[in-house]
UniProtKB/TrEMBL annotation:
NCBIfam families: para_beta_helix. The keyword Aminoacyl-tRNA synthetase does not apply. Residues 627-667, 699-756 form the PKD domain. Residues 153-186 are annotated as: Disordered. Pfam families: Beta_helix (PF13229), NosD (PF05048), PKD (PF00801), PKD_4 (PF18911). SUPFAM superfamilies: Pectin lyase-like, PKD domain. Residues 153-168 have a biased composition (Polar residues). Pathway: Protein modification; protein ubiquitination. This is PKD domain-containing protein. Signal peptide: none annotated.
């Protein structure tokens, strides 16, 4: 070795060699004669020294050996220090403290080596850049592969198999800037599969991580990393194992990963502004878990299905997170669960066939926004709030829950429920011991028992809801001082029910049109306000009491008179048991409905259009056919001719004494334009050079033209007829475009072939 020169290849015959080698030449290759590491062994003969060491050398290669017995805490089978462009390939490393060590080096390759039975790290890279570690097999060490204290980055760890190490499979520690861990198989390691500590701006892609003793992929105090397309499974051999775990991490992307058979699929704590997108976390205990003051994170487009507990959990003061467009189904616990979590946005999710679809629990779960979620076929509730206040539930759909579509239990106060749909549940919306909540503009129908049920709930507002085809529309049990107004309660068995202990409720301006409108067990509630000017629920001009109708049109408000046309029946409504007295019962108001037929709605001027009024219950109509806000016609049917091109907004206004209604349509009148059509003739299209060609314009509807010879975008002529001489052999495209005041035609092409 000492007599070798740079550029030499040293070939070692099979055998066992006890020595420590220091390579002092650059550009040197050391390889076994057989290429089989099993028959050419180099073992250390000195404790505390590397078996083979290279210092400040470049472009060297070591291949085909078994290297063993390097002992001492930092001693290596092969050590590279301050090296560049070296290759360590197809070697076996056995019983070393460190198999391969690379320090303060760049552009080296560690490829297709086997590292086993080490007392430290299998492959250790520190303060190095652009090192490629690929297709190695590392097992039986403490840590399989580790990159540490590296800021220049650009290292790649790919296609390695790292298994059965007592600590982590692959670690990055204090390592930043575009290091790539990809397509590795990391399994059956004692603690973690892949671990990033204080490391940022790295990429973990397409790794297969399974059956490790702790977490599959863990990042601690790290930021701006990308975790993409990994498969993580079977990390549930001990407590608190996470498939992918972010601990005090920020601004990282966790995307398109598949995680299964873990206690926690994808989890984070004390972590902010991360993006968890399009992942599958199925068949874990918990799918996704956001905890301990984690804030500003986005969970979007994920699937959390068939987990034994919850699909998505946001807990322990986690706030200002976004959970949107996820699918959470078939979880034994809850689809989405929030506990002591505030100011989160939960929207556009589908939660089906869970125990509960969405569940908010605890006094700290407040000021959350739940909107546009679909909850269907959950075995208990669609949405449940327990002791949670000041939340907003808007535009959610809760269908076919065995118990409640939406329920508020245990001191849920000052929540807003607006524009939700509760259908085919046992009870549509249920509240108990709830105060100060607002239920408005909800659609609640076809539920097996009550549409809305209040129990022990006071000072709530129910307004503008449509409640129909339930056994009972609205039911109050031991509930006081609630305001119920502006609701349409129709086609239910009972319109409204109050138990004997429901007092001081105010019920006015509702439409009750049911087989039995009111089953009221005391006379302590109020059923009207004093007559006040304003449009009522039936379209009349005054507010007062309620409409008391019947599907048979034989109800009180159907058969009694309003002689002064104020929208209020002239006599009070008193229920059969005397518990309901409504001094200002409403009458059914007939409102106009504007409808129109217009044909055609588009064509060339002069455009003849037929207008026909199809309105209902109107006593007068008015047409504005040009969008200027003025009446142009009051006939039910007429024809108008649009002479000028343009877009015309047409409005039909239908009126009666109670109201007006309008319908709109748009008319597009176009000018008929004659466009040119390009055509021409060439007297010859082939011949010998120089070739003279006469080109003659035969276009239609053209006022000018452009000749392009050679298809280079240059106009060679605008004359109607030209002679062009092709002096050189070749194939020449010729095209003509024709022009008039309405536009330019499609080009007409031919090809001229010139031979020698």
């Amino acid at each position: 070795m000492n007599s070798a020169s740079s550029g030499d290849t040293i070939i070692v015959s099979p055998g066992t060699y006890y020595e420590n080698i220091e390579i002092t030449r650059a550009n040197l290759e050391l390889r076994s004669a057989s290429g089989n590491p099993d028959d050419t062994i180099i073992a250390s003969n000195t404790t505390g020294k590397d078996v083979i060491s290279l210092g400040a050398r470049s472009n060297s290669k070591i291949t085909g050996f078994t290297i063993s017995e390097a002992t001492g805490a930092t001693i290596s089978g092969i050590s590279l220090s301050l090296c560049n462009g070296c290759t360590i390939e197809k070697n076996k490393f056995l019983n070393n403290s460190i198999g391969i060590s690379v320090k303060s080096s760049g552009n080296n390759a560690l490829r297709d080596n086997t590292v086993t039975s080490g007392t430290g790290t299998g492959i250790y890279i520190s303060q190095s850049y652009s090192t490629t570690t690929s297709e190695n097999r590392v097992s039986g060490c403490v840590i399989g592969i580790k990159i540490a204290s590296t800021q220049d980055g650009g290292n790649t760890v790919s296609k390695n198999t790292v298994s059965q190490n007592s600590g982590s499979g692959i670690e990055l520690e204090d390592t930043n800037n575009n290091n790539n861990l990809e397509n590795n198989t990391v399994n059956s390691n004692g603690v973690r599969g892949i671990y990033l500590a204080r490391s940022s701006k790295n990429n973990l892609k397409n790794n297969n991580v399974s059956s490790n003793g702790g977490n599959g992929i863990e990042m601690g105090y790290s930021s701006e990393n990308t975790v993409l397309g990994n498969t993580v499974s079977g990390n549930n051999t001990t407590v608190n194992n996470h498939g992918i775990f972010l601990d005090n991490c920020t601004n990282s992307y966790v995307q398109s990963n598949t995680v299964s058979s873990c206690e926690y699929g994808i989890a984070m704590r004390y972590s902010n502004n991360n993006h968890v997108i399009n992942n599958n976390a199925n068949e874990n205990d918990r799918g996704f878990y956001v905890a301990y003051t984690s804030s500003g994170n986005t969970l979007s487009g994920n699937k959390a299905n068939s987990n034994s507990l919850n699909g998505i959990t946001v807990i322990s003061s986690a706030s200002n997170n976004i959970v949107d467009s996820n699918e959470v189904s078939l979880n034994s616990g809850y689809g989405i669960y929030l506990e002591t979590a505030d100011n989160n946005k939960i929207f556009n999710n589908i939660a089906s066939q869970n125990s509960r679809g969405i569940f908010l629990r605890g006094v700290g779960s407040k000021q959350n926004n739940l909107s546009n979620n679909i909850l269907n076929h959950n075995t208990a509730d669609g949405i449940r709030l327990d002791n949670s206040s000041e939340n907003h539930l808007i535009n959610n759909t809760a269908i076919s829950s065995n118990t409640y579509g939406i329920c508020l239990v245990g001191s849920c106060n000052n929540n807003e429920l607006k524009n939700n749909t509760a259908q085919l549940n046992r009870i549509g919306i249920y509240m108990t011991t709830a105060t100060g909540n607002t239920l408005s503009q909800n659609a609640i129908f076809e539920n097996g028992e009550s549409g809305v049920l209040l129990s022990l709930s006071n000072n709530n507002i129910l307004s503008g809801n449509v409640i129909h085809d339930n056994i009972e529309g609205i039911s109050l049990g031991s509930s006081e001082s609630n305001n119920i107004s502006g609701n349409n309660v129709i086609s239910n068995g009972n319109g409204i029910y109050m138990c004997p202990r429901s007092y001081y409720n105010r019920v006015y301006n509702n439409c009750f049109n049911n087989s039995n409108n009111a089953n009221i067990r005391n006379n302590i509630s109020t059923w009207y306000i004093e007559k006040t000017s304003g449009k009522n629920v039936m379209g009349g001009p005054n507010l007062g009491g309620n409409f008391w109708g019947s599907p048979s049109l034989m109800g009180f408000s159907d058969i009694n008179l309003d002689n002064d046309s104020d929208g209020i029946i002239d006599i009070p409504y008193v229920s059969a048991n005397g518990n309901v007295t409504d001094n200002y019962p409403l009458i059914r108001i007939v409102l106009p409905v504007a409808k129109l037929d217009v044909s055609p709605t588009k064509g060339f001027v002069p455009l003849t259009v037929q207008f026909t009024d199809r309105s209902q219950d109107a006593t007068s109509i008015s047409w504005d056919i040009d969008g200027d806000g003025k009446s142009d016609n009051t006939n039910k049917s007429f024809v108008h001719v649009y002479e000028k091109p343009g877009t015309y907004n047409v409005t039909l206004t239908a009126s009666n004494r109670n109201d007006t209604s309008s319908a709109n349509v748009q008319i597009i009148a176009e000018e008929y334009k004659i466009l040119p059509v390009a055509n021409f003739n060439a007297n010859v299209t082939s011949g010998y050079a120089p070739l003279s060609v006469l080109l003659t314009d035969l276009s239609q509807n053209a006022t000018s033209r452009n000749w392009d010879i050679g298809n280079d975008g240059t106009v060679e002529s605008t004359n109607a007829s030209i002679v062009y001489v092709f002096t050189n052999p070749g194939t020449y495209p010729v095209s003509l475009t024709a022009v008039n005041e309405n536009g330019t035609s499609v080009a007409k092409p031919i090809t001229i072939t010139v031979t020698q």
